[in-house]
Amino acid sequence: MDDAQRTRYSRQIRLPQVGEEGQQKLLDGRVLIIGMGGLGAPTALYLAAAGIGHIVISDFDRVDESNLQRQIVHTEASVGESKASSARQRLLALNPRVRVDAVDYELDDEELDSAVRAADVVLDCTDNFTSRFTLNRVCLAHRTPLVSAAAIRWEAQLSTFDTRRDDSPCYRCLYPDTSVEGATCAAEGVMAPLVGIVGCIQAAEAIKLIIGNGEVLCGRLLLVDVLSMEFQSVKLKRNPDCPDCGRRSGD
Description:
With 251 residues, the protein is α/β, with parallel strands linked by helices.
């Protein structure tokens, strides 16, 4: 870490839970963010600002005018561009000393496997159950921590699945039925600040996982309702009969 970095990240370094050692872990860290929409936008911005050294973002979609209400990593000038490329430009403008890899297609099979294996933390900022179940299985295979969130209307939920811990549930423990279908923001709407709040929490979870300090939402599901402005944390236990994690190694 050089003097310019010490100045840039001085407010984090002052935190006793971070210090220079923790900041160096962030600079050496690598995160994979799947989805550069309402959740991925604030998550990526804050992780870049915090000094995560290597950020890989994946999104196959293009920026639409209807995205701009909440996907704050994009601008009007980005309309029509690949979301991954648009976000990369914004993140590098914010912090040119981080490395940002933009993947403008959907990662799958060997590429997804390789990307998850290389990451210290995976951020699930997708908008569909199929992608979430797939990410869960791949993260389980490599014991890569997964921070997953979903938001619709005025409500959201968030949890961290750190299956390096033998007592950690996985996403399938929360949703055992893979045939479940979720509502969409296009059909139901979503309040812009909600995804900002939840995306920032995802970023905070990732930072704590990388520096190895603080309590993360492992074994807890955070429920957010911004209409009533209530936050609830409920316990989420590992399901011993879970078809995805019920028989993972270490048991």
